């Protein structure tokens, strides 16, 4: 099996969530000459699935074997740091790009922004945004906006939300995002104004939907939508599944009640015996 094929297999297994299988193929490849691409595929696969420690350990192993990292390697490592909240390590990797003679690209800046925003380093993230040698992208601003909302920095969220609207004035989600920020601050007039601004500019909010692939055919579903030709059967099955979930929850509650009663009887609690009689009836 060629190295290119092994790399493709590692990438495929990792993207499908079969991390163990990816590792088996990767380890088999180490018996012969490897390149940075197969290491990137494995490090990135581990990082994507939140296996942060394993991803960073693999990078250390890569350095020991003197495989030279490239821009993609550092992108994978920054992704791992974002999942693990490793701000210090992320800065180290970001700085290593320049030390290794590489230039950080837009994707590296976006990943670094994600690291800082997720970890709640929001002032640092905003300063990083303003000092970038390029204009911020919507994904960078979106990551910062999410971080601001999650960590309660609504003052900064408002600034970032306005920048997003300026950047993408016809994107419905940008207006909704800023409207939600105003709602969290209980500034209802501004929240309403955002919805009105959408109407004024002719921006329509597209409903969210899910797509399921069955036997090679894609089926699209929207909440409360009955346009699908088999919607009656689908909703029947959904009702059945919900009934089973409720039945399972009721059974668990009954088992817990019986357990509590038995414990009470064992402790000489007469009221537990009466409850047992009522429950039996």
How would you explain this protein's 3D organization?
The protein is mainly alpha-helical. Among the domains are: 1-104, Serine Threonine Protein Phosphatase 5, Tetratricopeptide repeat; 228-281. Helix content is 72%, strand content 4%. It has 14 helices and two strands; from the N terminus they run H-H-H-H-H-H-H-H-H-H-H-H-E-E-H-H. It has helices spanning 3-15, 19-29, 36-48, 52-64, 71-84, 87-99, 106-119, 122-130, 138-150, 154-167, 172-184, 188-201, 231-266, 270-280, and strands at residues 209-214, 217-222. It has a two-stranded antiparallel ribbon with strand order 1-2. A hairpin with a 2-residue loop joins strand 1 and strand 2. Helix 3 (36-48) runs antiparallel to helix 4 (52-64). The longest helix has 36 residues, at 231-266. The protein is globular and about 55 Å long. Residues 271-281 have low confidence and may be disordered.
Describe the protein's topology.
Blueprint: H1 3-15, H2 19-29, H3 36-48, H4 52-64, H5 71-84, H6 87-99, H7 106-119, H8 122-130, H9 138-150, H10 154-167, H11 172-184, H12 188-201, E1 209-214, E2 217-222, H13 231-266, H14 270-280
Antiparallel strand pairs: 1-2
